[in-house]
Amino acid sequence: MQVTPELIAWLDSQRQAGFGDEALLKALVNAGYTEAFSLGLLSEKKGAAVQPDAVRQSAQPVQTSSTLPVTSLAWFGQQSTYPVLDVDVQVLVQMKHPQLAVFEGLLTDAECDALIEQARSRLSSSLTVDSDSGDSVAHQARVSSGMFFQRGETELVGLLERRMSTLLGFPENHGEGLQILNYKPGGKYDPHQDYFDPAQSGSHVHLKRGGQRIGTLICYLNTPQSGGGTVFPDVGLTVSAVRGRAVYFAYPVAHVSSACLHGGNPVIEGEKWIATKWIRESVFQ
Ligand code: PD2
Ligand code: ZN
Fold first, then answer.
1. Residue with CA at minimum distance from ligand 1 atom 1
2. For atom 6 of ligand 1, which residue has the closest CA?
3. Do 41 and 135 have their domain in common?
4. Residues 25-51, mean pLDDT to the nearest whole number
């Protein structure tokens, strides 16, 4: 494990935001660093950017690391199949850094089809978050159309949300409403981070609604004929879009060191439908 400039910058920014060593240690360990490495880092870089008490007290913490509901993939490395309420979920792939897993069986084929039909008439062009204003704006980096369900809006959405929170161990009310996306040929989502960059002013409006995002679950609702996989450039991984599969990745630290850069590869032939659940550190409203 290496002390990178990015890691030092993250440590500085968290200390400036008022976090103490206990919270920082937890966040580092949750992100996959060993305790010995994390303790060494904290003591070696002690107080590198600590500000006077008055500034520290008035700073608004952007990430309450000590209250993360998903501390790690608790099931990591234990079983290959998990009973989740009324279904059995298979774990096809697991990684520790980034914290990532690929699942099969979380949604049945019939549920995938039904979710698409419930969303189809409500799609509109997808937008991205403007980093300065926080507004939603059209951007060429994201070519798709989509919609959001309210939490529990339909019986099916409610059931899927209960399965998701049971599998991953987060309270249902920490989840944003389920988002459905539809990509046509040429549709894509360039690599990005799903967390709100604490350094950007536009993030604050989003952070008020439940704190930072800490994990993403992308469920594939159909199988495009060609293209459309989800790519993780930091680790050279592409997860193929196959109906009924899902990829989960967690970023307990809102920083590139979580290695959660990811994108949707262009759809080459056919179309692609996904359902995405983003998990917040606190209750999302
Ligand atoms: O469609 C995808 O594979 C994809 C890739 C990256 C979706 C998202 N991000 C997202 O919804 O955040
Ligand atoms: Zn994303």
1. 264
2. 263
3. no
4. 54
pLDDT average, residue stretch 211-240:
97
CA-CA distance, 275 to 186, in Å (whole number)? Answer: 19
Q: What global pTM score does this model have?
A: 0.77
What is the CA(194)–ligand 2 centre distance, in A?
5
Ligand nearest to the CA of 232: 1
Exposed e or buried b for every residue in 155-176, given b needs 16+ CB within 10 A?
ebbebbbebbbbbbebeeebbb
Most ligand 1 atoms within 8 A of CB, residue of 142, 271, 276, 279 to mutate:
276
SS3 helix, strand, coil % of the chain, rounded to 5?
A: 30, 30, 45
Question: What is the arithmetic mean of pLDDT over 167-176?
Answer: 94
Are 42 and 171 in the same domain?
Answer: no
From the CA of 265, give the closest atom in ligand 1: 3
Residues 253 and 137 in one domain: yes
Of residues 173 and 96, the one with the higher pLDDT is 173
The reply to whether ligand 1 has any atom less than 6 angstroms from the CB of 189 is yes
Q: Are residues 83 and 179 in the same domain?
A: yes
Whether 103 maps to a domain, the answer reads yes
Cα of 205 from ligand 2 centre, angstroms: 19
**Residue 157 shares a structural domain with residue 186:** yes
Q: Tell me the pLDDT tens digit for each residue of 173-195.
A: 999 999 999 999 999 999 999 99
Range of the domain at 41: 5-57
Q: What is the largest CA-CA distance in the chain?
A: 59
